[in-house]
Amino acid sequence: MSLRIHAVPAIRTAAAATSAPLSLGVQSSMGGNLLGQEETSRAKTGRIAFVLIDGLADIQIPALANLTPLEAANTPGMDAIAAAGLNGLLDPVEPGLACGSDTAHLSIFGYDPRLYYRGRGALESMGAGIDMAPGDIAFKCNFATLDPATKIVLKRRADRHFEDVGPLLCSALNGVSLPSFPHLIVKAKYATEHRCGIVVSGPGLSDEVSGTDPLKDNLPLQVSKPLKATAEAQYTAAVVNELSTALQEVLQDHAVNQQRIAQGSPPANVVLLRGCGSRPARYESLHGGSH
């Protein structure tokens, strides 16, 4: 469980306080303000601490006297933050609509995901620390294990404990060349566990392409295809397929993988390219102000 505190420009209005679950999505029409008049005045000119604990919900555990792990845990820091803040239930987008972390985060920060969601790859890559410009495309990636002879993905996650070797592999992948597309720039950076972010920069790219992840173990590595009948999408699918091959070539003979094979561990010899996306509009362009 992780606790992330974001300092963001204060939003001037919020949903009205109520004993019922709150819906704070961009489609909400409720008025009012959760802050008092004095606090609102300060928030307009300052910053607020926004605490977002993603994935905290859990189920009751019999071994914990039917408490959830959160209920059973000793959490004095979180308790203090909750006591000093505003608490409630919310539907991130709209009531009854289940959504993932990416679309929920966008909506909470004032982006209607139906208008601004452009794939999770951009969020993962920017979160890893890769700068993105308009027109770039990005992927949320897994280090995985591939049978080179059959092109079957044996393990979609080569290893969850990649903190030591992940940065080494990403360093080797960063700047990999694409012979058919020498004008494109590839950037790679380690994220967490078995994941990394990859960004491709250059003209004519589209985020309307599929990835290479088969979504289950023991299935063939997928070929990227255009999701729209446009020249840009067709071009980008060809780029993604060459990128997939180029990454495999770098990883195949990397010292990290040679050592893993010698130790009997599955090699991380393929990168599964997932969730192609482009960066959303900047926060200031939607709400004004600065970082």
UniProtKB/TrEMBL annotation:
Entries under InterPro entries matching the protein: Alkaline_phosphatase_core_sf (IPR017850), Metalloenzyme (IPR006124), Pglycerate_mutase_ApgM (IPR004456), Pglycerate_mutase_ApgM_sf (IPR042253)
Pathway annotation: Carbohydrate degradation
Molecular function GO labels: metal ion binding; phosphoglycerate mutase activity
Any one biological process term the GO annotation gives: glycolytic process
Source organism superkingdom: Eukaryota
Keywords for the protein's UniProt record, in alphabetical order: Glycolysis
Domain annotation Metalloenzyme: ranges: 47-261
Reaction(s) the record says it catalyses: (2R)-2-phosphoglycerate = (2R)-3-phosphoglycerate
Function: Catalyzes the interconversion of 2-phosphoglycerate and 3-phosphoglycerate.
Homology family: Belongs to the BPG-independent phosphoglycerate mutase family. A-PGAM subfamily.
Name of this protein: Metalloenzyme domain-containing protein
